[in-house]
């Protein structure tokens, strides 16, 4: 048995953990995976060499580098609770999808592209959690087909979002409703914090989250960005802070779609 630790600089969100789990699911030589999201590290307990594992991680383009690989003679503690983990994945899937619908609806009503973009980021996380749930036990071909369809759908939505931002930059539109932007984004922020709490609690007896994890999560940063955009819309009485944040978030959503598509290869 060997214990190999990787540094994954782009792993800052639980949805990326699910992507890595799916990517490595077909590796027969892997005995256990230990994720440290705040530290951006993954420890793999495995037989044979680590090169194939490293290649699979590299294909996700998350900035993977080898820390060390040493023999492991001790036992591997299994603290996993599959039933509990599936239950929590269902919770976070439903929460993310609910806020996708809420933010998408209020985004169009308030005229905020920041909220619309954030809704697509919520959808992106929902897709990853759904893949983790529905692909369990399925064939490799099924998993790849699901990931491919989800990735292209998400990429299409991101492209439509970019085109709408460009249209609104050119046109003389009304200023977005900053109150709706701030209120809905604050609620989404609490929802994301709660999802992170559930995901971390499922792997630890501790009832609290590490602050470093909260503030390195893309979802939290995006929520704070939309809140800031709402404040700037109020101060400047222009649409541009909202459009700038919307553009940035659509870029993140497109990047997430590309990552999902890599799972289908």
Count of alpha/pi helices: 9
The number of distinct structural domains comes to 2
Low-confidence stretches: 204-216
Q: Structural class from helices and strands?
A: alpha+beta
Q: What labels describe this entry?
A:
265 residues; alpha+beta; Alpha-Beta Plaits; 4-stranded antiparallel sheet; 4 strands
Draw up the topology in text.
Layout: E1 2-8, H1 14-24, E2 30-36, E3 41-46, H2 51-58, E4 64-71, H3 82-110, H4 113-134, H5 140-170, H6 178-201, H7 211-216, H8 218-236, H9 240-263
Antiparallel strand pairs: 1-3, 1-4, 2-3
Structure description:
This protein is of the alpha+beta class. The protein has 2 domains: 70 residues, Alpha-Beta Plaits, CATH 3.30.70.100; 182 residues, no CATH class. It has 9 helices and 4 strands, in the order E-H-E-E-H-E-H-H-H-H-H-H-H. It has a 4-stranded antiparallel beta sheet, with helices on one face. The radius of gyration is 20 Å and the shape is elongated. About 5% of the residues have low confidence.
Give a short overview:
The protein is 66% helix and 11% strand. It is an alpha+beta fold.
């Amino acid at each position: 048995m060997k214990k190999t630790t990787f540094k994954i600089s782009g792993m800052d969100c639980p949805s990326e953990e699910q992507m890595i789990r799916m990517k490595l699911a077909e590796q027969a030589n892997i005995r256990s995976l230990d994720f440290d999201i705040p530290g951006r590290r993954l420890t793999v307990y495995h037989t044979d060499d680590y090169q194939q594992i490293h290649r699979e991680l590299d294909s996700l383009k998350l900035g993977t580098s080898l820390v060390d690989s040493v023999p492991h003679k001790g036992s591997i503690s299994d603290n996993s609770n599959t039933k509990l983990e599936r239950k929590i994945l269902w919770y976070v899937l439903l929460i993310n999808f609910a806020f996708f619908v809420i933010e998408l609806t209020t985004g169009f009503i308030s005229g905020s592209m920041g909220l619309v973009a954030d809704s697509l980021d919520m959808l992106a996380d929902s897709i990853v959690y759904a893949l983790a749930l529905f692909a369990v036990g399925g064939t490799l071909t099924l998993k790849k087909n699901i990931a491919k369809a989800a990735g292209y759908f998400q990429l299409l939505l991101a492209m439509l979002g970019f085109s709408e931002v460009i249209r609104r930059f050119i046109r003389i539109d009304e200023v977005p409703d900053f109150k709706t932007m701030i209120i809905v984004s604050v609620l989404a922020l609490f929802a994301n914090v709660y999802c992170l709490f559930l995901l971390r609690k499922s792997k630890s007896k501790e009832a609290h989250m590490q602050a470093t994890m909260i503030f390195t999560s893309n979802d939290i940063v995006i929520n704070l960005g939309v809140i800031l955009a709402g404040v700037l819309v109020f101060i400047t009485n222009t649409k541009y802070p909202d459009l700038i944040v919307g553009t940035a978030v659509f870029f993140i959503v497109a990047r997430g779609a590309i990552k999902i598509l890599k799972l289908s290869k």
